[in-house]
Structure formats: C-alpha cells, structure tokens
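Dig into my protein:

:::
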Amino acid sequence: MTLQDLAKSLHNCQRCKLAKMGRTQVVFGVGNPHASVMFVGESPGFNEDQQGEPFVGAAGKLLNDLLQSAGLSRSDIYIANVIKCRPPNNRDPEPDEVETCKPFLMQQIAMIHPTLVCTLGNWATQTLLERKVGITKVRGQAFYLKNFVLFPLLHPAAALHQGSMLEPLREDFKKLREFLDRNTKPSEPTATPATGPTLHIEPPQPAQMDLFGS
C-alpha cells in the first residue's frame, strides 16, 4: 500500500463519530512523501476542513515562517495530524477518536519513514510519546524512540491565542534548527528521490539522563 492508497481508503471514513459531526472532508496530510522530517499536529481547524490540507489558516502562515527560520520549507517536509477530521467547534479530540485515527498516522509515519518527527502541541506529543506529559516540560528536546527521533514543539495556534507564547515558540524552532544543523549531511547532487535534508542522527550516549527518570 502507498500513501496515495491509504489516503483513498480514508476518503470518506466513517470509523468514528466525527464523520457525522459536521466535517467537510478528511484531511489526510500533505508534503514530501520521502521527507526526512515530518510534522504532526492535533486536528484540522476550519480552514483545513474547507481546503483539505493541514495548516493552511493563520497557524499555517505562522508555521511557514517558523519553518523558514529553521532552514526548512513545506517542500522539504510532510505534515499530518493525529486526527484527520475536524472536531466540532475545534474542541479537543476525545480518547476514542484518537484511538481510531492513530493507526493511520502510524501508517503514514511507517510509509514516509522520517528520521525526525516534530510534534506540535500537547495532543500530538502525548499520542506519539504514549505518556501524559505537558508540552512545556518536553518542548525543544529530542526523544530517541524506536523508529524515529521525536522533537516536541509548542503549537503555532497557541501563540496566536496567547501572544506571550510566540517567543517560546520561536525558541523551540531555534532549538530545532540547532538540532538539524548538528545532524544534517549535505545532500548528494545525484541523490533521488528528493528527500529534503538528509539527517543522520546518532543515538544518545547510554549515560544520558532519561528525562522521565525511568
């Protein structure tokens, strides 16, 4: 199965109650299918639901600026959400909705095979870390998981709602740029297909303290 096949299979998804709660369409994901860096948000908002792409509203414009500050562009990365359908009134996703939709996110990650997955906000971070931990405790740090490195970031929408979060959000992307600079190899001129930055991330030393203390 390809990403395109998976997208087609979810085109008119009826697997959870969000299908009957006013969504316009399933918002699957968009970007470079061979990306080394993937971004994962929470769920589509109004603009995303209308246009069928993640991060196209005001938060998307801010994300584009932040990507540029980290030396990335939309053409380098792939963007998806944990939840593929807009919850009514942009409410938080409910546990049964996350459980229903998470397998499709994991399939996207497996197909794209990114080296680095950047989660935006609490829901995406907790879903992929599989721990109830606040974003403010883990933001701007690398977590070495089995199949990829997870790099949690504040959500751009949080900075739009609360102006005081904008500077911390910019700091997160500055840390992301530093992490990328330390781990990116120059791309080979003949390398195909285009993958954006080629990341080579060494696992941490065994002595590195586990941030969760386990």
The radius of gyration is 17 Å. Residues 3-190 form a domain with the Uracil-DNA Glycosylase, subunit E fold (CATH 3.40.470.10).
